[in-house]
Every structure is written in structure tokens, then in C-alpha cells.
Design a protein that fits this description.
By secondary structure, this protein is an alpha/beta fold. The protein has one domain. It is 36% helix and 18% strand. It is built from nine helices and nine strands. The strands form two sheets. A six-stranded mixed beta sheet has the order 2-3-6-7-8-9. The two termini are 35 Å apart. The C terminus is likely disordered.
């Protein structure tokens, strides 16, 4: 029996292609599956070709993400007891189709007084960067205004995992590029934006692992006053050391261009230069 060959619709060339940091993270996690990325780009472009061929994409079930949801809720509750917070997803009643929060994030940065700090949960950013229209929900952004007026920014991503992987770091680098783009566009002066990943401690670490992981535990305590999470501070794509407290710094290679393509080349990682 001969199977018909079906060509995918051509992606639009007259406007930026849409992508999310999560898309790129999944692309890397799936061993750079080009089919996944091609389908996702088509989906982001509004193409509904799969339904036309009676194919229904299988979405992740709630049970598979329950653990991650519980971890994020626990961290958010703990942080809410220590910091002034703004939760954008909660304000929108967790609506998946809520608008972006670009203007609100800029407003929070501008009105922050010296000596004050605020935690922003789930702000949705939408920016055009290097010919791509990027949209994503940042788990948390800590804004802190120093006495001399300098704005410190830390982007945090929460992962229900006991080990930080390259795709996790890559996702946060995208968030950094997006927030830098937004602040530059709006004229928000700031110090180097820092990145970190909050994740679960292992259930039963060996004595050797406890020693190795202690800097990550200290970083979570010093930065967020958390006792039940680890924090890996990540250097940015230029290899600058982290300014926030804590150790466990992952150092990507230096990069001369602020593009998603160059941000993807961060060791240790597979070659991610293949994505469009």
C-alpha cells in the first residue's frame, strides 16, 4: 500500500516567527528533535494542519505536572512570607490566554524605591528579538533597588527536579534576553541581570553529595531565605560571575552577540546550533 506524501504548510515569511523559551527547552530535551520543532513553529504560527488530517496532538496530562505544581506552590508560599510579591497569573485567575505583563513589569521597576525589593511571580513577557517573537512566563523575577539607586535583577526558574540540566539553563538564558530587551526598550537602567534555578533537594543524599550540594543550599537560604530548596546561580552568556549570594555557578562560554542562537551554545550541552 502506497502512502500519500503530505507537505507541511510553508511557514509565513512576512512576519517574525513565534517561539517560547519552553519550546526551545523541550527541543533540546528531546535530543534536538527537528520534527517537534517544525510542528511547534507551525502551531505557533496559527496553522491547524494536524486537525485537517484527523490528528490530535497529545498534551501532557495534569498528573505528570502535579509534582512540579506542588513544588512551585510551596516555594511561592514560602517566598510570600518573606517578600512583597505580585502574582500575575493569580491576578488573571490562571487564565492560559491572559495578556502579557510587559507594562506592569516596567512599572514595578520604575516605582521601586531605594532599599526595597519585590518578587514578581509568573510575569508574561512578549518581545521581538533577533527576528523572533518570543513569549514566555517567568517563574519569578526579583527586583531590588539599592541605596544608590542601582536596580538588581534576578530571574529565577523553578524546577521539580533534583538535578539542573542544560535545557533548564538554556530556558533561563532566553528569559534573560527577553527581560534585557524589554528594559532596554523602556529605558530601565539596571545592573547585570542574574539567573538562577530553584530545585528540589535529593531525598536521601550521601555524605559526599551533601558536601557538594551545600553551596546550593546556602544560596537558596541567603538569596530567598528558603530551607527546602536548592538554588543554582548561573553566569550569563558573557561569563560574568554571579553577583547574588551563593555558589554553584555554571559558566557558559563568552558570546559576542545577543541572539538566541549564540545563547544556545552553553557547555555542557549538545550542539544546539541546529535549531532555526
Amino acid at each position: 500500500m502506497t502512502s500519500a506524501i503530505v507537505s507541511l504548510p510553508v511557514l509565513p515569511a512576512n512576519r517574525p516567527m513565534r517561539l517560547t523559551p519552553t519550546d526551545v527547552s523541550q527541543f533540546v530535551r528531546l535530543e534536538q528533535c527537528e520534527r517537534f520543532l517544525r510542528f511547534r513553529l507551525a502551531e505557533r504560527a496559527g496553522q491547524k494542519f494536524m486537525e485537517d488530517y484527523d490528528v490530535t496532538p497529545q498534551r501532557i496530562t495534569p498528573l505528570l505536572s502535579l509534582s512540579g505544581h506542588e513544588f512551585e506552590e510551596g516555594v511561592e508560599k514560602a517566598l510570600g512570607s518573606h517578600f512583597h510579591t505580585v502574582h500575575y497569573a493569580a491576578r488573571a485567575s490562571q487564565d492560559h490566554n491572559r495578556p502579557d505583563n510587559d507594562r506592569e513589569v516596567v512599572t514595578e521597576a520604575r516605582k521601586l524605591q531605594p532599599g526595597k525589593a519585590v518578587l514578581l511571580f509568573q510575569p508574561r513577557l512578549s518581545v521581538e528579538l533577533a527576528g523572533w517573537l518570543l513569549r514566555g512566563d517567568l517563574d519569578l523575577v526579583r527586583l531590588e533597588r539599592q541605596a544608590d539607586g542601582t536596580l538588581l535583577v534576578l530571574i529565577g526558574d523553578m524546577k521539580s527536579t533534583v538535578e539542573v540540566k542544560v535545557e533548564h539553563r538554556l530556558q533561563v538564558v532566553f528569559y534573560l534576553l527577553m527581560l534585557e530587551c524589554l528594559f532596554e526598550k523602556e529605558g530601565i537602567a539596571h545592573d547585570s541581570i542574574q539567573m538562577g534555578i530553584l530545585f528540589r533537594p535529593p531525598a536521601d543524599p550521601t555524605p559526599e553529595e551533601q558536601i557538594e550540594l551545600q553551596p546550593l543550599k546556602d544560596a537558596a537560604k541567603q538569596t530567598f531565605d528558603l530551607d527546602d530548596a536548592f538554588l543554582e546561580i548561573i553566569a550569563d552568556s558573557w561569563g560574568r560571575p554571579a553577583a547574588f549570594p551563593g555558589g554553584g555557578v555554571a559558566r557558559p562560554t563568552r558570546c559576542s552577540r545577543r541572539t538566541p542562537q549564540c545563547a544556545a551554545r552553553s557547555p555542557p550541552s549538545p550542539d544546539t546550533a541546529a535549531w532555526p
